[in-house]
Amino acid sequence: MPNSNSNESIFSQLEAFGHKKVVFCSDPDTGLKAIIAIHDTTLGPALGGTRMWAYKTEADALHDVLRLSKGMTYKAAITGLNLGGGKAVIIGDSHRNKSEALLRKFGRFIKNLNGEFITAEDVGTNPRDMEYIRMETQYVTGVPESIGGSGDPAPIAALGVFMGIKACIKELYGNDNLAGRSVIVQGIGHVGENLVKLLRDENAKVYASDINEDRLGQVAKKYGAEAASNNIIFDIDADIYAPCALGATINTQTIKKLKCAIIAGSANNQLEDEAVHGQMLLDKGILYAPDYVINAGGLINCYSELMGFSKKRSLQLTENIYEATRNVLKLSKAESISTIEAANKIAEKRIDDIKKVKSTY
Ligand code: NAD
Fold it and tell me: N or C: which terminus of the chain has fewer CB atoms within 10 Å of its end residue's CB?
């Protein structure tokens, strides 16, 4: 998780990120130390996962939750969902410090927000944890399918990425068929494996890479992909690079090496620096599908769960990612701006437009 190098006051940070509300939750009895950040609720209640992480400092935790919650505002806005942006972090080691009591206490803090914030799972939390939160509040999604939840979001997230890749292919080559195209999938975990399947079903050549060698061997064999060692992936001459593991893999060093025409994957915060590396990709002529535009499938699943889960509706909304990506690419081309800047503009415009609707009657 990124470190905060900010000595700024809390209120200056809230002002800089544009937050509406931040709640600090403390309960010595259960050891709960959490921060809930509500960035913007113009479009609807703020929805965002709860991350449990052993942050080095409280400043790092605050910085992370502010950054992530703002990202959720943009993701919901560009996906056309009626949701605002929020996120929560629980400070602690998810293997050692998690308990039913801590999670239920956290659930009560969410309950007190009366629906302004709705949570879901994230790094360090899982559907079982959401079940505990659900014991105290209805404002939680991502609960197990057996109790009416939407289940594993990874297949839907992978479908969204697949749609984003297709939109990029269409932009560059005039049709969106993946047959004969080559794709490097970095990270073949929950989302990556589902993506490999979709790509292979359409006869794309797939180079798969993962630090988990056993998993890599199994997945490559199962889908007929070529296993590629992690340290050579930037040397492979492929059409598409799909980062599906970690953030910040696109930076000054890797952009110099990249040979692909398109970057489109599920990992969050792929650009080490949005402005600098977005521009570098534009200058180098690499088409970048902004991560938050194409990895919104998980959020769509949560949204659908709130509306009374329908798989059909989730799939429809996820397929719209194709059009959303096309719109971003069009604006980027028309205004000669990076694709991330174009995506931000579209998201901000939707929020501004709806703000005007809500200020009138
Ligand atoms: P995961 O933990 O199931 O899979 C990640 C995989 O990446 C693992 O197999 C891991 O071994 C591998 N990995 C880790 N470091 C690596 C490295 N340096 N090089 C190559 N492989 C590496 O996670 P996931 O649920 O598949 O999510 C993948 C990414 O997509 C994450 O960034 C996540 O935030 C993002 N995302 C996930 C969802 C979802 O629904 N799961 C939705 C939106 C975004």
Answer: C
Name the residue among 288, 306, 262, 265 with its Cα closest to residue 344. Answer: 288
pLDDT 10s digits, 197-232:
999 999 999 999 999 999 999 999 999 999 999 889
Tokens of 85: 């942006």
What is the C-alpha to C-alpha distance for residues 160 and 260, in angstroms, rounded to an integer? 20
Give the number of other Cβ atoms within 10 Å of residue 108's Cβ.
15
C-alpha distances out from residue 274 to 74, 149, 278, 308, 348, Å: 14, 34, 5, 36, 16
Q: How far apart are the CA of 186 and the centre of ligand 1, in A?
A: 9
Domains of the chain, each with CATH number or no CATH: 10-70+84-147 (3.40.50.10860), 154-348 (3.40.50.720)
Residue of the CA atom closest to atom 30 of ligand 1: 267
β-sheet bridge partners, residue 53:
91
Question: Which tens digits make up the pLDDT trace of 311-345?
Answer: 899 999 999 999 999 999 999 999 999 999 999 99
Torsion, CA 347, CA 351, CA 352, CA 357, rounded to 10: 140
CA proximity to 101, closest of 30, 23, 189, 152: 30
Rounded Cα–Cα distance for residues 141 and 131 (Å): 9
Q: Which of 113, 94, 120, 84 is nearest to 25 (CA)?
A: 113
pLDDT for the residue 309: 79
pLDDT (average), residues 161-172: 98
Distance CA 225, CA 205 (A): 7
Which residue type is seen at 222? K
Probe residue for ligand 1, chosen from 161, 188, 190 as the CB with the greatest number of ligand atoms within 8 Å: 190
- Nearest one of 325, 320, 327 to 303, comparing CA atoms: 320
Distance 216 CA to ligand 1 centre (A): 13
Could you tell me the distance, in angstroms and rounded to a whole number, from the CA of residue 255 to the centre of ligand 1? 21
Nearest CA to ligand 1 atom 32: 267
Bridge-partner residues for 287, per DSSP? Answer: 262
